[in-house]
Design brief:
GO molecular function, one term: DNA-binding transcription factor activity
Strand order of the largest sheet: 1-2
Oligomer: single chain
Low-confidence stretches: none
Number of strands: 2
CATH architecture of the domain at 5-86 and 134-161: Orthogonal Bundle
Radius of gyration: 21 Å
Protein name: Rrf2 family transcriptional regulator
Helix content: 55-70%
CATH class of the domain at 5-86 and 134-161: Mainly Alpha
Organism: Thermoactinomyces daqus
Pfam family, one: Rrf2
Order of helices and strands: HHHEEHHHHH
CATH superfamily of the domain at 5-86 and 134-161: Winged helix-like DNA-binding domain superfamily/Winged helix DNA-binding domain
Amino acid sequence: MQYSVGVEYALHCLVYLIDVPSDKSVGIKDLAEFQGVSETYLSKVFGKLSKAGIVSSVPGVKGGYRLSRKPEDISFWDVIEAVEGSKPIFQCKNIKDNGYLYRENCCSAPSFCTINSVMLSAEEKMRDYLRSKTLAWLNEELDRVLPKHIRKDTREYFSKSN
């Protein structure tokens, strides 16, 4: 299982948008430059975030993006699902039905696959955990673990750009 780097870029950029006043926005150029990623790539990621209602785009010369919801209402899972889609990680192919005993009609297949059940249950536990972590939590955690000057410089960078 692997999430694309787009999820990481999205989470970082969304944290930068937390302190942007509701009447302002941050341009994709500034976000991309700060992250060291192409504008084209980040635009695709933000298109998905916009479609999911996590950010809203502001048109025009001074346009850009801002959060559409409060940071405490945006979970890691919301971001992952927006960027990656909602397809389950484990894709059961019912290979048990191709086993020797089932091919020879010696046994009837059970109504469900135990392996699939375990995998889906594990995925749900992971989703629940990711739903419990929000942008507000991430913002507080970054304030706790990063040097103060890094947070200050980051906030200043984005306050000048909007």
